[in-house]
Amino acid sequence: SARVSSGPWLSLSYTYFLVLIHYGETIVAWRDAGYHTQPQYEAFRALLQAPKDDAQAIIKDRFPVPRFIECDQHSSQARFLLSRINPSVTHTSSSSGYGTSSGEIVFTEDVSLQTFMDHLKRLAVQNA
Fold first, then answer.
1. Backbone angles phi, psi at 87, to 5 degrees
2. What's 41's DSSP letter?
3. Alpha helices, H only, 1-128
4. SS3 content of the chain, % helix, strand, coil (to 5)
5. What is the arithmetic mean of pLDDT over 58-62?
6. What residues pair up with 13 in beta bridges, in sequence order?
7. What pLDDT digit, counting tens, does each position of 11-34 carry?
8. Are 36 and 66 in contact (CB under 8 A)?
9. Peptide bond into 87 cis (omega under 30)
10. Bridge partners for 106 per DSSP
11. How far apart are CA 91 and CA 127, in angstroms?
């Protein structure tokens, strides 16, 4: 969901053709500051390494081999994640806008899963 696409997180997601590790803004800032190279931040180093190990385990058992992508929030490769998430926060959402902490706005004409389900329920009740 787009609501969780901002903040201190990293995710490993995979589909049939793609294995993606996506780093949130805070994780990128910590990594760029070099915290993972300092001995007192061994847990952070392990946090960065765990999704890489999991991705390699997924890739080695798959045929055809999926594409492996590592990307940071707001990088050009982040489009692979944005194309697959539920657009729960869009440019047409009335409850969100720039400067809010409800998630990153996804510019799409698709509707969120919640909007689709609400519309489907209305149609089911209307036709009954």
1. -75, 70
2. G
3. 25-32, 42-60, 79-82, 113-126
4. 45, 15, 40
5. 90
6. 20
7. 888 888 889 998 988 999 999 999
8. no
9. no
10. 90
11. 31
d(C-alpha 108, C-alpha 110), whole Å? 5
The whole-number average pLDDT for the span 49-66 is 93
- CA 98 – CA 104 distance, rounded (Å): 8
pLDDT at site 49: 96
Whether residue 107 contacts residue 90, with contact meaning beta carbons closer than 8 Å, is answered with: yes
Buried b (16+ CB within 10 A) or exposed e, 69-92: bbbbbeeeebebbeeebbbbbbee
Q: What percent of the chain has pLDDT over 90?
A: 33
In DSSP terms, 11 is beta-bridged to 22
Residue whose pair of structure tokens reads 């765990």 in the numeric block: 50
Dig out the tokens for 47 from the structure.
Answer: 């946090």
On whether the CB atoms of residues 21 and 51 are closer than 8 A, the answer is yes
Beta-carbon contacts of 60 under 8 Å, excluding residues fewer than 6 positions away, are none
